Amino acid sequence: MKHKFNYTTIARRFTSHYPLLSSLITQISFWIMANAVLGLIIFLYVRSLESIYPVIADQRLSPVMVIAILLGFLYGATLGLVDHYVEIFSFQKRSIGQIILIKTILSVGTLTTMLWLILDKLHEFIFASVIQQHQLPINDRFWHYVLCMLVVYYLFMTLIINFAIQVNKKFGPGVLLPLLFGKYRNPIEEERIFMFMDLKSSTSIAESSGHLQYSAFIRDSFYDINQLIPRYHAEVYQYVGDEIVLSWTVPEGLRKLACIQFFLPVKNSLRIKQIITRKTTDAYHSLKPDFIWVSW
């Protein structure tokens, strides 16, 4: 059976199998484009100055683009590694605003350090000879303002990429681009496999634990389930109270029977969490998350 090309399915599969590579590709692609735009702006600005102060030999765009691409690759690779490993160890259960803020601070700090080192070397090997040849009145204050300009630009770009990454994670890999290009503006028919996972004995649990602990219990149970979703290429259709509705495209759901295989790891994950937290005296941890499911 021949299937149409589905970008969302391919993106989800690739991200779940190669999360580090996916992070690197995202960051490198973005920073190459961001640096290319910055390089073009600087090139046009320098050419405009040359028309008034013809002190520098004719400049070409190609060397600027080469440097921009190389620096974009360097920035992207560094920030891709930082983003991937910091996400694993530090950002579980944090709000989107906190994640964006922390990542932006880390990214700008990393970029500022790299910029300082790169500008120092470029000044020594490239700019120094040009400055001496044309006797340009450039001093340390000039480089200070250049560094500040680049930091402001990269701060803005970092906010954009971190926001886009978090939105992409909330929608799921492979959804943001089709959304921007209007794929979901008009209704379409699709054959999908659905799984309905409903919490057992939810009324008695809510009565025994209180509404605050019960809400935290539901939140953490859904969080644990969400950690397994990418591995089985599922999509969250909606949350309804204590129920979570998942769906697969037919090819993805039948691929290695993912729509059936998904349930057992969920049961095991919740059971392991219950065993680990059993020693605590907190009534919240004595709750037993268990789900029944129906699918078609």
UniProtKB/TrEMBL annotation:
InterPro entries: Nucleotide_cyclase
Listed transmembrane segments: 20-45, 65-86, 98-119, 142-165
UniProt entry keywords in alphabetical sequence: Membrane, Transmembrane, Transmembrane helix
Matching SUPFAM superfamilies: Nucleotide cyclase (SSF55073)
Protein name listed in UniProt: Adenylate/guanylate cyclase domain-containing protein
